[in-house]
Amino acid sequence: MSEYKCLESIPGVGPVYAGGILAEIGQIDRFADQANLAKYTGLTWKKHNSGKRQSENTPLMRTGNHFLWYYLVEAANSVIRYVPEYKAFYQKEADEVTRNKYKLAVTMTARKFTRLVYTLLSEHQLYVPK
Q1: What is the DSSP letter of 56?
Q2: Which of 2, 10, 56, 62 has the most CB atoms within 10 Å of its CB?
Q3: pLDDT value of position 121
Q4: Which domain holds residue 45?
Q5: What is the Cα–Cα distance from 48 to 108, expressed in whole angstroms?
Q6: Where does the Transposase IS116/IS110/IS902 C-terminal domain start and stop, copy by copy (predicted)?
Q7: 3-state class (DSSP) for residue 45
Q8: 66-82 and 34-41 helices cross at what angle (nearest 10)?
């Protein structure tokens, strides 16, 4: 099955987002797991530790493939409108934050969307809603 069809099976992901994501990822086999794909994209957060204390308010890493980051965030923003699971996740994240609700909620949804993209591409499956 074509990787392109795998991504286009997700409601809200059209030919532009699917093509852009595939062009920037290349071969999905390059990544050991979804965490490595997220790190390559820049959808991970810096670790701030001091002894046993771990900070909860950490900034997003600004390294990685900026074009892939753009495609994943925009595609996740589109998926929010079509998939109830992602809409509920987005709303939950937006309700938990006091500042920059939109930015953080969309970024967290894009991180969740990255897991979906990795799974669909590595297993060559079509998206099936729950």
Answers
A1: S
A2: 10
A3: 95
A4: 3-123
A5: 19
A6: 5-91
A7: strand
A8: 110
